[in-house]
Write a structure and sequence with these properties.
This protein has helices at 6-12, 16-23, 35-42, 46-58, 72-105, 111-146, 159-182, 194-235. With 236 residues, it is mostly helical. The chain folds into 2 domains: 6-58, no CATH class; 70-235, no CATH class. The longest helix is centred in the C-terminal third of the chain and has 42 residues, at 194-235.
Length: 236
């Protein structure tokens, strides 16, 4: 198990994502990292983590959807209807909370100004990012799944927009990591008011959902779409 990629471990059992979130092990943007290397980077005992993964697998819980068994169209629909829709509602809410907290607390917590700037840059990235997926990449993937011969795309190959999405995911991952660092792991300071605490909880929820969102694209949707295009190219 130690030589397997983090992303493959989560694809195999999505419930492991929560454990990796708790361990601060990145399974989405840097999911290609082997488990042993990820443990070393975090200063964790690899064998202890393997045991924790085993415990996680044994615990009863709700059955998770195995997206490997679903069609690419179903996965695109799920990402749009679940993660994209949630983001469109969550981002304005977080911004409203952040504006209030910065106004009330920035004098004693100047790091909040950096949090606000980082969040604004990420928000400005995410809205056009989702639009490009919904209007360009996902329709291409749906077309590939329905095709019997290789479609001719205006951008040449599905891998071109996928590369763009990967790069933009990296920027989002960096923004999330920066906000986590600036807030000391989203930990409320002693003088935090209720709104401050609600904001930090909202940022945790945003981070977790984006990790799941990016994981499903980087490690499930995009590789399968590229493999399908390759198979269709070989059939022509």
């Amino acid at each position: 198990m130690l030589d397997r990629k983090i992303s493959d471990l989560v694809v195999e059992n999505p419930r492991r994502a929560r454990l990796f979130e708790q361990l601060k092990i990145d399974y989405c943007c840097h999911g290609a990292t082997p488990l042993a290397d990820a443990c070393r980077a975090r200063g964790l005992d690899p064998q202890a983590i393997v045991r924790q993964i085993g415990d996680c697998d044994q615990r009863p819980g709700d059955r998770q959807i195995d997206w490997r068994e679903k069609s690419l169209t179903e996965l695109c629909d799920h990402i749009e209807q679940t993660h994209h829709q949630w983001l469109r509602e969550a981002l304005p809410r977080v911004k409203g909370l952040l504006d209030k907290v910065v106004e009330a607390h920035h004098e004693h917590h100047p790091e909040l100004d950096d949090v606000a700037q980082t969040f604004a840059a990420m928000e400005n990235e995410l809205f056009p990012h989702m639009m490009k997926e919904e209007r360009v990449l996902f329709p291409m993937i749906r077309q590939l799944e329905q095709a019997t011969t290789l479609p001719q795309f205006h951008c040449g190959t599905v891998q071109n927009p996928i590369r763009v999405m990967h790069a933009e995911h990296e920027l989002v991952g960096e923004a999330l990591a920066r906000m986590r660092k600036l807030t000391g792991g989203f930990a409320p300071p002693e003088d935090a008011c209720t709104t401050y605490r609600v904001l930090l909880d909202a940022l945790v929820e945003l981070e977790q959902d984006l990790h799941q969102h990016i994981h499903k694209e980087n490690n499930l949707l995009f590789p399968r779409a590229a493999q399908l295009e390759h198979r269709l190219a070989g059939a022509t």
